[in-house]
């Protein structure tokens, strides 16, 4: 690799991915964004969205596991009614999961809050979502910022740039270029939120 | 090189992502399982899809054909039906045609089967002393079929290492591939 970056431990190594794979690109950028918010801006991550998804999946798997075990212990004709319940419940949960991911999550991969150490400023919240279409190169990052002073107003800021801006020839993520854009977006969000008031 | 990029991806996953990968794997398996159980419930048969293993029903069914079965209580077994049955003590089901039936008023049936391509009836296959089959031996009646598709199952059963290898590779890729 032609980049020279100080490597103290594994987590500081620059991220290298297959630059032709859209999923890997989006994941790398999302991870870098999360890392920036956590380390540089000191946000604490709010896991509610992700947890919701995990719980629904877990309950669905439990239903199917229960159906499997019950049927194994009581061979088929006896287990019929339990199986019907488990199968229907499983598919209903799958439907709920799809609706959840489609309408409630909506590409939001990070929700964080900034708690001011002095306790003077109210808690500000950020929700970040991203979109990268399958064979497209435009990475669209949207930041929803709420100052905490007025719960109703959210300021939305958005970067929409080609991923070629952030990855070099070998597929290595240029963390600094990306985070400088993220920081610009974040600062814009803060100032526009203040201006609204 | 691409394998190594997976490894990096995995290292970058945080705890919740990793849990989601495992749950995703579980959900794929559960979906297949629930579809199978759902078919079992809908058709009333404990094995709604079977593969023909021998050529004893040619020219109707050949080795490697997939059969869809139903086992509804209300539909009586009649001579000429193609049934899939299991002989007590053996676990491989057999697909043959019903030749003769004896039926009593309380709808107790016993029947004799024979493969279309066989010279003699199945009495040689039944357990020693058994001359007739009963309803409880029946897994279901053939209702539909798909040619050739069962060859995959036959291959997997003849070469079990192939089956485990394919399953392991598929499982690995599902666990490692991150999709949002």
TrEMBL record, chain A:
KW Endoplasmic reticulum (keyword) present: yes
Compartments reported by the entry: Endoplasmic reticulum membrane
Predominant subcellular localization, coarse grouping: endoplasmic reticulum
InterPro entries given in the database record: Spc2/SPCS2 (IPR009582)
Record's keyword terms, sorted: Endoplasmic reticulum, Membrane, Transmembrane, Transmembrane helix
Membrane topology: Multi-pass membrane protein
Residue ranges of the TM segments: 54-70, 82-103
Single GO MF annotation: peptidase activity
Entry GO CC: signal peptidase complex
GO biological process, one term: signal peptide processing
UniProt keyword Endoplasmic reticulum present: yes
PANTHER family per the UniProt record, alphabetical: MICROSOMAL SIGNAL PEPTIDASE 25 KDA SUBUNIT, SIGNAL PEPTIDASE COMPLEX SUBUNIT 2
Function: Component of the signal peptidase complex (SPC) which catalyzes the cleavage of N-terminal signal sequences from nascent proteins as they are translocated into the lumen of the endoplasmic reticulum. Enhances the enzymatic activity of SPC and facilitates the interactions between different components of the translocation site.
Family: Belongs to the SPCS2 family.
Protein name in UniProt: Signal peptidase complex subunit 2
Provenance organism: Rotaria socialis
From TrEMBL, chain B:
A GO molecular function held by the record: serine-type endopeptidase activity
Location of the Peptidase S24/S26A/S26B/S26C domain: 37-109
Membrane topology field: Single-pass type II membrane protein
Keywords: Endoplasmic reticulum, Hydrolase, Membrane, Protease, Signal-anchor, Transmembrane, Transmembrane helix
UniProt-listed GO biological process terms: signal peptide processing
PROSITE patterns linked: SPASE_I_1 (PS00501), SPASE_I_3 (PS00761)
The reaction(s) this protein catalyses: Cleavage of hydrophobic, N-terminal signal or leader sequences from secreted and periplasmic proteins
EC number(s) reported in the record: 3.4.21.89
One GO CC term on file: signal peptidase complex
Principal location listed in the UniProt entry: endoplasmic reticulum
Pfam families: Peptidase_S24 (PF00717)
Compartments (UniProt record): Endoplasmic reticulum membrane
Subunit structure, interactors included: Component of the signal peptidase complex.
Family: Belongs to the peptidase S26B family.
Function as written in the Swiss-Prot or TrEMBL entry: Catalytic component of the signal peptidase complex (SPC) which catalyzes the cleavage of N-terminal signal sequences from nascent proteins as they are translocated into the lumen of the endoplasmic reticulum. Specifically cleaves N-terminal signal peptides that contain a hydrophobic alpha-helix (h-region) shorter than 18-20 amino acids.
Name recorded for this polypeptide: Signal peptidase complex catalytic subunit SEC11
Gene source species: Rotaria socialis
């Amino acid at each position: 690799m032609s980049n020279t970056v100080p490597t103290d431990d594994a987590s500081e190594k620059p991220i290298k991915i297959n630059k032709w794979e859209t999923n890997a690109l989006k994941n790398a950028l999302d991870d870098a964004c999360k890392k920036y918010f956590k380390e540089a801006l000191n946000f604490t991550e709010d896991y509610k969205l992700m947890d919701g998804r995990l719980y629904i999946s877990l309950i669905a798997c439990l239903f199917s596991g229960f159906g499997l075990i019950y049927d194994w212990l009581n061979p088929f004709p006896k287990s019929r009614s339990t199986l019907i319940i488990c199968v229907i419940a499983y598919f209903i949960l799958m439907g709920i999961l799809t609706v959840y991911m489609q309408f409630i999550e909506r590409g939001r991969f990070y929700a964080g809050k900034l708690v001011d150490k002095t306790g003077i400023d109210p808690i500000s919240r950020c929700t970040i979502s991203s979109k990268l279409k399958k064979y497209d190169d435009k990475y669209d990052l949207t930041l929803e910022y709420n100052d905490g002073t007025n719960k109703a107003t959210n300021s939305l800021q958005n970067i929409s740039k080609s991923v070629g801006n952030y990855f070099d020839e070998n597929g290595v993520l240029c963390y600094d270029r990306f985070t400088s854009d993220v920081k610009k977006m974040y600062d814009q969000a803060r100032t526009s939120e203040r201006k609204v008031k | 090189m691409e394998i190594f990029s997976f490894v990096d991806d995995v290292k970058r996953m945080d705890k919740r992502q990793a849990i989601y990968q495992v749950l995703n794997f579980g959900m794929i398996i559960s979906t297949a399982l629930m579809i199978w159980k759902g078919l079992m419930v809908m058709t009333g048969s404990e094995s709604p899809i079977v593969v023909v293993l021998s050529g004893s029903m040619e020219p109707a069914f050949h080795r490697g054909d997939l059969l869809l079965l139903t086992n509804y209580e209300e539909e009586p077994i009649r001579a000429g039906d193609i049934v899939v049955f299991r002989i007590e003590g053996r676990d491989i089901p057999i697909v043959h045609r019903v030749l003769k039936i004896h039926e009593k008023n309380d709808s107790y049936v016993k029947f004799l089967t024979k493969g279309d391509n066989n010279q003699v009836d199945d009495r040689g296959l039944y357990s020693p002393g058994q001359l007739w089959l009963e309803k409880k031996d029946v897994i279901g009646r053939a209702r539909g079929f798909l040619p050739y598709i069962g060859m995959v199952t036959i291959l997997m059963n003849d070469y079990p290492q192939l089956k485990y290898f394919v399953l392991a590779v598929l499982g690995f890729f599902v666990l490692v591939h991150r999709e949002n």
